[in-house]
Design brief:
Strand content: 35-45%
Protein name: Rieske (2Fe-2S) protein
Distance between the termini: 16 Å
Largest sheet: 3 strands, antiparallel
Organism: Isoalcanivorax beigongshangi
Domain Rieske: 4-105
Keywords: 2Fe-2S, Iron, Iron-sulfur, Metal-binding
Strand order of the largest sheet: 1-9-8
Oligomer: single chain
Number of helices: 0
Radius of gyration: 13 Å
Shape: globular
Length: 112
């Protein structure tokens, strides 16, 4: 288990998501209602990345994380799928910490 600096906290905008490539895996960070949420960029249905275009993770109203492949919708706060073929499953959350204005994540539980 190791920690990595993801970005400065002020680089993440309210109501927006951003993707980051970390070696073989991709991570997404989204801020909603002032709260930061971090997940592995991996859909539990097919085991593929959620997005086709860079940083395009949210639905049109920025209320849900969406899978571009089959339209599954995930709650931002919990990562739980509320609509789509993986209903009831969850995105894999990543533990994060904000220190000295930077977002640090703990690399563990990466999807296979």
């Amino acid at each position: 288990m190791s920690e990595v600096r993801l970005c400065a906290r002020n680089e993440l905008e309210e109501g927006a998501a951003r993707g980051f490539q970390l070696g073989a895996h991709s991570v997404l960070a989204v801020v909603q209602d002032g709260q930061l949420h971090t997940y592995w960029n991996w859909c539990p249905h097919l085991g593929i990345e959620l997005n086709f275009m860079p940083d395009q993770f949210l639905d049109d109203q920025a209320q849900f994380i969406t899978c571009a492949n089959h339209g599954a919708l995930f709650e931002i706060e919990s990562g739980e799928c509320v609509s789509g073929p993986c209903h009831g499953e969850k995105l894999v959350a990543i533990t994060h910490d904000i220190r000295d204005g930077d977002v640090w994540i703990t690399l563990e539980n990466a999807p296979a």
